[in-house]
Specification:
This protein is of the alpha/beta class and about 230 residues long. About 25% of the residues lie in helices and about 20% in strands.
Length: about 230
């Protein structure tokens, strides 16, 4: 008799647990599917590819998602003179959860404002030829897929929004789903609650705490160059 009671209780508990788990799974999936479809905003910001709905003003509402990755496309110190357009050539801060993968290491930087001048001119994973991106190294695509996984939603940011938009163009050209990539704009315009300061002043000197940054460097010396 006791065995039968325990058997019935075990079945009831299993059903209850299954219901609870299903409830949380269903609600989690519902939450993750609630993202608005990427939609480029208007005006000059739209020319950079910045999203209308998820941008510097709203990104705090979309942080910490386990279905997403967050990438800041700046260098720690960019050779370009971004101070000339009111920005910072140094990575002066970032949004919590974002990891840095410098866009200039992915492919050549083109289309910068004249006042900024030239950016990085070193090795890159890809070269653009006649509108197509050609891998310079055997590992180029593997590196790109590792930092920008195709099965995740990808949130891109930089200083003013340009590098983020360029990154989305690169990824889409190489087969990524454009509906899973958001250019959320520029850190310079962020006033949210998840700011991590890197730039600080001490005894009248400007210092940068780069140790705070999760920075993904690409060591081109270790890669296998593709010979034409």
């Amino acid at each position: 008799m006791k065995k039968n009671v325990w058997l019935v209780l075990s079945i009831i508990i299993s059903l209850l647990l299954g219901g609870v788990i299903s409830y949380f799974i269903f609600n989690k999936n519902e939450e993750l599917s609630a993202l608005p479809k990427p939609e480029v905003t208007g005006g000059e910001r739209g020319m950079l590819g910045i999203d209308k709905n998820i941008n510097e003003e709203t990104i705090d509402n979309y942080l910490g998602r386990d279905d997403s990755v967050y990438r800041d496309m700046r260098m720690l110190k960019d050779p370009g003179n971004y101070e000339a357009i009111g920005g910072d050539s140094y990575l002066s801060g970032f949004i919590k959860g974002f990891e840095v993968v410098p866009y200039p290491y992915l492919t050549e930087v083109k289309g910068l404002p004249e006042a900024v001048g030239d950016s990085y001119k070193g090795h890159t994973l890809f070269t653009e030829k006649e509108g197509k991106y050609i891998a310079n190294y055997k590992e180029s695509l593997d590196i790109l897929e590792y930092y920008f996984p195709k099965d995740k939603v990808i949130f891109l940011m930089c200083g003013g929004g340009g590098y983020a938009g360029m990154t989305k163009n690169l990824l889409v050209s190489l087969g990524w789903d454009e509906n899973k990539i958001y250019d959320v704009g520029g850190y310079w315009f962020y006033n949210g609650n998840n700011n991590i300061n890197v730039k600080r002043e001490e005894n009248g000197k400007i210092l940068y705490d780069f140790w705070k940054v999760t920075y993904h460097n690409i060591d081109f010396k270790t890669l296998t160059e593709v010979k034409e």
